[in-house]
Predict the structure.
Amino acid sequence: METVRIELPSALVRAANLEESNLSQEAARLLALELYREDKISLERAAELCQTPLAAFMDFSAKHGVPPLLYNYDVLEEERRSTDRLEA
């Protein structure tokens, strides 16, 4: 996988309480989590991008207050319509 190098202020790393020995992996997980939280990528894609097993990424997500299964209004409305059709 192609990589890029970034520089972060040490104060930011300390404030985020990230392990410096594993900084790249931790930063990748947090970035993938934010993309997932913003509904820009799927849970599976987020796990793949930060090279973390899906189950481990789900745990990571939950520990950071992001539900591993996100539903938006459109998804819920589609499920409601499907349920209505099944009941008819």
The two ends are 50 Å apart (CA to CA).
